[in-house]
Amino acid sequence: MNEKELKMILEEGEGYKIEFKESLSGIDKEMVSFANSSGGRIFLGITDDSKIKGFAASNRLKSQIQDIASNCRPKVQIAFEKFENILIITVREGSDKPYECSEGFFKRLGPNSQKMTRNEIVDLFKSEGKIRFDELMEPGFNYPGDYDKNKLTEFIELGGLSKTAGSERILLSLNVSTRQRGNLHFNNSGILFFAKNPQSFIPWSVFTVVLFKDKQGTDVIDRKEVKGSLFEIVEGVMNFTRMYTKVAYRFTGKPQREEIYEYPFEAVREAVINSVMHKDYFEHGHNNILKFFPDKISIENIWRKPRHFILGRTVFRRNQVIADLFSRIHFGEKLGSGMQRIKEICKKDHSPLPKINFTETHFYITFGQNREYLNMAKAEESISTTPQVTPQVTPQVTLSGLEKQILEEIIKNPRISRNQIANRLKIGSDTIKEYIKRLRKKNILRRKGKTSGGWWKIKR
């Protein structure tokens, strides 16, 4: 501290990190408010209107102030500095929030220390990880009535776990349940993995997937709400992604053709796992969303940004039990290395690295198209517009998963109708109409005969 700095502080007055006090009255409130916020300094010996009165700073006084800080719950960390006849108390931002004094919980709001409401205290507990959604017990869950033993069996098989122990012992060892008065009670992670209908207890755990016709995201072709347990949701989202991802075939002369996919499936899968693993399940108003555009895939995750978060360096596990369950079935790891694995997969797949953005409440990751796929797609377009093609040469073709499924249904029954295809694939008829139009435009599919009694012909 020097005269120039003190003059500037006096001119600016009290603020978010500056408090003036004439006495020790209410100093514990200022301490916990700074500790619950971003830290700050208390200037003893200055009035509220920035007039210097001075304060006799003896060792006894410092000891008294230190005792006040120690009596806060938990103890507030402070340091002293003396400048002329002013005692400056520096309060560090707390690493074990929330902090409480004898009058309650306080936080800094502009130049004032404000008592926190019940909801603000709860939110602070959540943001600091003192309350974890996946560890909270759900009193409305009935065991065994709401429990699905088949999901536990599938989980055991996916993880290669021992089947010798009974189901109840396995559930207890997975930390998804506890035994109270002889009865088994499930927490939210147990419900999200092993309930017959998880969404009846946690309806906001669904994952929305949307296919857009245009790059602006205004014309929707297909939309679904993927439900089930969390590992079923991951597979459901990936099935949707595979269905609409195009693939280019490279014919090398070998019996097995080479397939080049539009997007790196394993990287997208890792991002989907991360999104359900680190979702802020306290937020009820929004679902996680996968948006499939003509030129990119974007995943939007509802989260609560960790304190001092640095992308690629901060390791955090918002839902520790959920993260542990996923790691047991080899869906991601607990060490927080998901983003690094995504980048490595993209590099290996010759795909561009994903673009990542985040706010305090949302996390976005966007995947671009595979460069090799784009080159092959351009080559196919060039071949299709060339007047003469040697009959013996099979041109490269690009098909989406849904286009392949449609062609497979037509191969089984060339006289099948669009509505019948839609019913068999459990997809809207408008979506089937759009994709048949694409196949016809690619000169792969043709309609023969009259509308009512016609049939489909696969040209190549």
Question: How would you describe what is shown here?
Answer:
- It contains 15 helices and 20 strands.
- It is an alpha+beta fold and 460 residues long.
- The chain folds into four domains: 3-127, 2-Layer Sandwich (Methyltransferase, Cobalt-precorrin-4 Transmethylase, Domain 2); 134-201, no CATH class; 207-371, Heat Shock Protein 90, CATH 3.30.565; 397-458, Arc Repressor Mutant, subunit A (Orthogonal Bundle), CATH 1.10.10.10.
- The strands form six sheets. It has a six-stranded mixed beta sheet with strand order 11-10-14-15-17-16. The chain has a four-stranded mixed beta sheet with strand order 1-2-4-3.
- Strand 6 (104-109) and strand 7 (112-115) form a beta hairpin.
- The radius of gyration is 31 Å and the shape is elongated.
- The N and C termini lie far apart (81 Å).
Topology at a glance:
Blueprint: H1 3-12, E1 18-21, H2 27-36, E2 40-44, H3 59-71, E3 78-83, E4 86-91, E5 100-101, E6 104-109, E7 112-115, H4 118-127, H5 149-159, H6 167-173, E8 177-180, E9 183-186, H7 188-194, E10 207-212, E11 220-226, H8 230-244, E12 246-250, E13 258-261, H9 265-277, E14 288-292, E15 296-302, H10 320-328, H11 338-348, E16 355-358, E17 362-368, H12 371-384, E18 398-400, H13 401-412, H14 418-425, H15 429-441, E19 445-448, E20 455-458
Parallel strand pairs: 1-2, 10-14
Antiparallel strand pairs: 2-4, 3-4, 5-6, 6-7, 8-9, 10-11, 12-13, 12-18, 14-15, 15-17, 16-17, 19-20
Helix pairs in contact: 8-9, 9-11, 14-15
